[in-house]
Structure formats: C-alpha cells, structure tokens
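Hello everyone,

My group is preparing for a crystallization screen and wants a predicted model to guide construct design. The compound we'll soak is copper (II) ion. Before spending weeks at the bench, it would help to have a computed complex in hand. I've included the protein sequence and the ligand's SMILES below. Output in structure-token form would be ideal because that's what our pipeline reads.
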Amino acid sequence: MFSRKPYHAWLPILLVCLAVAANAQSFRVQCPTTTVTHPTASNVEPPYTGATTFSTGAGGFLTPATHVNGAIKCQQISGGDGFATMGDGTQTYMFSFGPLSGLADIRDGKPGTQFPNVFNTPYSGPAFLPGDPATYDAAHVTPFSYNGAIGLVPNLDANNGTGNTGAPVDGHVDPRPIMDIGVMNGNIPAPLMAIDEDDEFFLTLTNVGQVMRPDLFERHTVHFHGYPNASGFYDGVPDASVAINIGGSFTYYYLAPDAGTYFWHFHITPP
Ligand SMILES: [Cu+2]
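Reply:
Good plan to model first. Here are the tokens for the complex, ready for your pipeline.
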C-alpha cells in the first residue's frame, strides 16, 4: 500500500503535462530581433574583429561588454516525406526535411538561413500552388524571390481594428501554405544551413507528417553530429530531448562556438 501512494500523486500531474502538450500543438515560427547576447537589432553580419566580450550583467547572466560579434539568424524546415531518385532512376520513398524559409536562396544553391528582417517578412505574392516547391509563384512566370518564413502572417489578435495592416508579426502562421509546400517535399540533401561565429541560430522544425504513410505518426527531431549544442534539450535524440509531433513546430536554439562543417539528420520516435 505504501508504494501505491506516489502513483496516485503523480497521475494527475502527468495528465496535466499531457494536456499542456496537446494544447501546444500548432505551427509557429520564432525569430527574435534582439536577445541578451545580441541586444541591438541588426540585419547584417558585423565585420569580424574578434569574439564577443562578456561581463556579468543583471541576475548573474553574461551580457556583451565592449564588443558584440555575430548576429541572429533564423530558418524554418519541414519534417515530412518525399521521394529520392536513386542512381538507376528508381523513386524511393523516404522520411526527410524540406525548406520552409529561404526558398529562393535554396533554389540558387545557397543556405536557407536568414537574418530576422528577411525571415520575419510575410509573403505577399500570388498564392502558392499545392505541391509547388515554390521556386515560382502561382502564375509560373515570375521567378520566385521570397526568402521569408513560409506561412508567416501578422497576429490577427492584435490588429487594432485595422485588418492585417500594422498588426505585429509574432510567429503566427497560416498552416495552409506550410502544408502546400512542406508535404511531399522532403529533400536529400536536406536544406543547407550556415551560421557565423557568435551567431545565435533559431531553427524552427515544422512537422507536416507523412501523407503517403498515415500509419507512420512518429515525432520528428533535428540531430547534429559533432556540433556542441547550447543545451542537451536540443540534441534531437528523442529519448533524451524534445521531439516534435505532427502538426506542431518547435524552434531549436544554437550557438556557434566552434567553426566547422557538421551534418545533421532526424530521429523519430513513437508519440
Ligand atoms: Cu546520427
């Protein structure tokens, strides 16, 4: 009897945690313009004159002292399914990542990593076509030049009666263009990312699910090899860190302490 008491105490706590997790499932993106480490909004990479120098600020946190190096950068990727073309032409179904920001740059062979002012600009062109990897707009005439976060919309709860005009962008998204572009758009290799020393990198993973395999409803993660994570929370091995459900987004946070080239892949785990 003694051993059963903790069970009764923990069950309601677990249920509360599950309810919170269920309510939190939605697509969102996150790309702050300033942080403790980069207190001044900047949309350019500063010339390199040395690493950031820190001193102890309020609450014991390290804050930039005399010199701030690096910048804030953001990217959004989809986790979902797609097909790879094998060497013999065979189409092989796979579980992979696709681009949901920097699409024009990725088309041009560049990383999909963007400064906040680019990432946080809502799209205003013609509607995307379902299944379109969006390298062209709906008219299929004008070369597509948009590099912002797919789906990003102004916050309709803060429109002050002015419609969309003037409403702040705070990471709310319309899921339709995300699904139109993200579903069946898994790429190998996955979207390229690039950051500089002392950058802070906000990487949003949006899990669009596997439309060809509804029996697969695993959670999705980003896992780097050799990269010194800011926190084990972002490691992407699901049994030890956060994993993202279908229909949800999560923003990983990375610092750039060591120069190098790193590869990354997903891990999946049953919900
Ligand atoms: Cu691995």
